[in-house]
User: What shape does this take?
Amino acid sequence: MKYIKIFEDFNPNLINTVEELTNKLKEYSVPVEEWGTGEAKNIEHLLDEIRGEECGVEDKGGFLIRSIEFVGVRIYHKDKDNVTWVLKEDKQEFKDGRVRRRNMPSSVSEKMKFGEDPLISAIRGIKEELGVGVEGHQLIKMRDLFYNSGSQSYPGLRTRYKGHQFTCLLNDDQFDMNGYIEVQKDKSTFFKWFKKD
Assistant: This one.
Protein backbone atom coordinates (compact mmCIF):
# COMPACT_ATOMS: atom_id res chain seq x y z
CA MET A 1 0.00 0.00 0.00
CA LYS A 2 1.41 3.35 -0.93
CA TYR A 3 1.61 6.21 1.53
CA ILE A 4 -1.46 8.44 1.39
CA LYS A 5 -1.42 12.01 2.63
CA ILE A 6 -3.90 12.72 5.39
CA PHE A 7 -5.19 15.88 3.73
CA GLU A 8 -4.76 17.26 0.26
CA ASP A 9 -2.66 20.20 1.45
CA PHE A 10 -1.77 18.97 4.92
CA ASN A 11 1.25 16.98 6.05
CA PRO A 12 0.26 14.25 8.58
CA ASN A 13 3.70 14.51 10.14
CA LEU A 14 2.64 17.95 11.38
CA ILE A 15 -0.29 16.52 13.37
CA ASN A 16 1.16 16.11 16.82
CA THR A 17 -1.83 16.23 19.13
CA VAL A 18 -5.33 14.88 19.48
CA GLU A 19 -6.59 18.49 19.46
CA GLU A 20 -4.99 19.18 16.05
CA LEU A 21 -6.51 16.00 14.58
CA THR A 22 -9.91 16.76 16.16
CA ASN A 23 -9.97 20.25 14.66
CA LYS A 24 -9.03 18.96 11.22
CA LEU A 25 -11.73 16.24 11.33
CA LYS A 26 -14.34 18.81 12.40
CA GLU A 27 -13.42 20.95 9.35
CA TYR A 28 -14.76 18.03 7.29
CA SER A 29 -17.90 17.65 9.47
CA VAL A 30 -16.81 14.28 10.84
CA PRO A 31 -18.97 13.69 13.96
CA VAL A 32 -16.08 13.08 16.37
CA GLU A 33 -18.36 13.70 19.37
CA GLU A 34 -19.76 10.20 18.71
CA TRP A 35 -16.32 8.61 18.98
CA GLY A 36 -15.24 6.89 22.17
CA THR A 37 -18.84 5.86 22.97
CA GLY A 38 -20.69 2.62 22.32
CA GLU A 39 -18.57 0.49 19.99
CA ALA A 40 -16.62 3.41 18.51
CA LYS A 41 -12.93 4.03 19.11
CA ASN A 42 -11.67 7.48 20.14
CA ILE A 43 -9.54 10.03 18.31
CA GLU A 44 -6.38 8.80 20.06
CA HIS A 45 -6.84 5.45 18.30
CA LEU A 46 -6.97 7.12 14.89
CA LEU A 47 -3.91 9.22 15.69
CA ASP A 48 -2.06 6.04 16.71
CA GLU A 49 -3.06 4.37 13.42
CA ILE A 50 -1.77 7.33 11.42
CA ARG A 51 1.50 7.51 13.38
CA GLY A 52 1.94 3.73 13.11
CA GLU A 53 1.43 3.92 9.32
CA GLU A 54 -1.55 1.56 9.59
CA CYS A 55 -3.92 3.85 7.70
CA GLY A 56 -4.04 6.83 5.43
CA VAL A 57 -6.68 9.54 5.26
CA GLU A 58 -7.16 11.71 2.21
CA ASP A 59 -9.38 14.50 0.96
CA LYS A 60 -11.70 13.23 -1.77
CA GLY A 61 -13.39 16.37 -2.99
CA GLY A 62 -14.53 17.78 0.32
CA PHE A 63 -14.93 14.60 2.32
CA LEU A 64 -12.40 12.30 3.95
CA ILE A 65 -11.62 8.68 3.10
CA ARG A 66 -9.64 6.48 5.47
CA SER A 67 -7.74 3.74 3.65
CA ILE A 68 -6.55 0.57 5.29
CA GLU A 69 -5.04 -2.67 4.09
CA PHE A 70 -5.49 -5.67 6.34
CA VAL A 71 -5.13 -9.42 6.66
CA GLY A 72 -7.84 -11.73 7.97
CA VAL A 73 -6.89 -15.20 9.17
CA ARG A 74 -9.39 -17.99 9.85
CA ILE A 75 -7.68 -20.25 12.39
CA TYR A 76 -8.43 -23.96 12.78
CA HIS A 77 -7.23 -26.92 14.82
CA LYS A 78 -7.95 -30.61 14.27
CA ASP A 79 -7.75 -32.62 17.49
CA LYS A 80 -6.80 -36.29 18.04
CA ASP A 81 -10.49 -37.30 17.71
CA ASN A 82 -10.57 -35.70 14.24
CA VAL A 83 -12.81 -32.84 15.47
CA THR A 84 -12.15 -29.55 13.72
CA TRP A 85 -12.24 -26.41 15.87
CA VAL A 86 -12.45 -22.83 14.62
CA LEU A 87 -11.25 -19.83 16.63
CA LYS A 88 -13.52 -16.78 16.91
CA GLU A 89 -13.28 -13.41 18.59
CA ASP A 90 -15.71 -13.51 21.52
CA LYS A 91 -15.61 -9.91 22.75
CA GLN A 92 -13.53 -6.81 23.44
CA GLU A 93 -13.57 -5.23 26.90
CA PHE A 94 -12.41 -1.61 26.99
CA LYS A 95 -10.71 -0.18 30.07
CA ASP A 96 -13.58 2.32 30.44
CA GLY A 97 -16.05 -0.57 30.93
CA ARG A 98 -17.53 -0.73 27.44
CA VAL A 99 -17.89 -4.17 25.83
CA ARG A 100 -17.91 -4.67 22.06
CA ARG A 101 -19.01 -7.86 20.34
CA ARG A 102 -18.35 -8.21 16.64
CA ASN A 103 -19.31 -10.97 14.25
CA MET A 104 -15.94 -11.17 12.52
CA PRO A 105 -15.48 -13.41 9.47
CA SER A 106 -11.87 -14.02 10.49
CA SER A 107 -10.39 -15.34 13.72
CA VAL A 108 -7.67 -12.69 13.64
CA SER A 109 -7.65 -9.42 11.69
CA GLU A 110 -4.62 -7.18 11.54
CA LYS A 111 -4.08 -3.83 9.88
CA MET A 112 -1.02 -3.92 7.66
CA LYS A 113 1.75 -1.39 7.84
CA PHE A 114 2.56 0.49 4.62
CA GLY A 115 4.53 -1.75 2.27
CA GLU A 116 4.26 -4.85 4.48
CA ASP A 117 3.92 -8.28 2.86
CA PRO A 118 0.48 -9.84 3.63
CA LEU A 119 2.01 -13.14 4.80
CA ILE A 120 4.32 -11.30 7.22
CA SER A 121 1.33 -9.28 8.48
CA ALA A 122 -0.65 -12.47 9.08
CA ILE A 123 2.19 -14.08 11.05
CA ARG A 124 2.66 -10.86 13.04
CA GLY A 125 -1.07 -10.55 13.72
CA ILE A 126 -1.34 -14.09 15.10
CA LYS A 127 1.67 -13.50 17.34
CA GLU A 128 0.39 -10.13 18.60
CA GLU A 129 -3.23 -11.16 19.15
CA LEU A 130 -2.84 -14.76 20.34
CA GLY A 131 0.76 -14.95 21.53
CA VAL A 132 1.29 -17.88 19.16
CA GLY A 133 4.22 -18.09 16.77
CA VAL A 134 3.34 -19.75 13.46
CA GLU A 135 5.38 -20.61 10.38
CA GLY A 136 4.61 -19.38 6.88
CA HIS A 137 3.84 -22.91 5.65
CA GLN A 138 0.89 -23.10 8.11
CA LEU A 139 -0.91 -20.29 6.26
CA ILE A 140 -2.77 -20.68 2.97
CA LYS A 141 -3.73 -17.57 0.97
CA MET A 142 -7.38 -17.63 -0.03
CA ARG A 143 -8.48 -14.44 -1.79
CA ASP A 144 -8.33 -10.66 -1.73
CA LEU A 145 -11.22 -8.34 -0.88
CA PHE A 146 -11.92 -4.76 -1.92
CA TYR A 147 -14.80 -2.71 -0.55
CA ASN A 148 -15.85 0.74 0.65
CA SER A 149 -17.93 1.19 3.77
CA GLY A 150 -18.63 3.25 6.81
CA SER A 151 -16.53 2.49 9.86
CA GLN A 152 -17.89 0.96 13.07
CA SER A 153 -14.71 2.14 14.78
CA TYR A 154 -14.92 5.73 13.46
CA PRO A 155 -18.56 6.68 12.70
CA GLY A 156 -18.87 9.26 9.96
CA LEU A 157 -15.43 8.56 8.48
CA ARG A 158 -15.74 6.66 5.20
CA THR A 159 -13.27 3.82 4.81
CA ARG A 160 -11.77 2.02 1.81
CA TYR A 161 -10.64 -1.53 2.61
CA LYS A 162 -8.25 -3.90 0.88
CA GLY A 163 -8.07 -7.28 2.58
CA HIS A 164 -6.05 -10.47 2.20
CA GLN A 165 -7.68 -13.66 3.48
CA PHE A 166 -5.73 -16.63 4.84
CA THR A 167 -6.45 -19.86 6.69
CA CYS A 168 -4.11 -21.29 9.33
CA LEU A 169 -4.04 -24.74 10.96
CA LEU A 170 -2.56 -24.73 14.47
CA ASN A 171 -0.68 -27.81 15.69
CA ASP A 172 -1.15 -29.44 19.10
CA ASP A 173 1.59 -27.32 20.73
CA GLN A 174 -0.04 -24.08 19.55
CA PHE A 175 -3.59 -25.09 20.52
CA ASP A 176 -4.99 -23.89 23.87
CA MET A 177 -8.53 -25.12 24.51
CA ASN A 178 -9.05 -22.24 26.97
CA GLY A 179 -8.66 -19.75 24.14
CA TYR A 180 -6.50 -16.64 24.09
CA ILE A 181 -6.57 -13.09 25.43
CA GLU A 182 -4.85 -10.12 23.81
CA VAL A 183 -4.21 -7.36 26.36
CA GLN A 184 -3.64 -3.85 25.01
CA LYS A 185 -3.33 -0.50 26.79
CA ASP A 186 -6.99 0.39 26.14
CA LYS A 187 -8.74 -2.99 25.89
CA SER A 188 -8.57 -6.78 26.11
CA THR A 189 -9.79 -9.05 23.30
CA PHE A 190 -11.01 -12.57 24.09
CA PHE A 191 -10.87 -15.48 21.62
CA LYS A 192 -12.70 -18.81 22.01
CA TRP A 193 -12.76 -22.14 20.17
CA PHE A 194 -15.96 -23.52 18.63
CA LYS A 195 -16.62 -26.81 16.89
CA LYS A 196 -16.75 -26.33 13.15
CA ASP A 197 -20.21 -26.94 11.69
Residues 79 and 172 are 8 Å apart (CA to CA). The first strand starts at residue 56 and ends at 59.
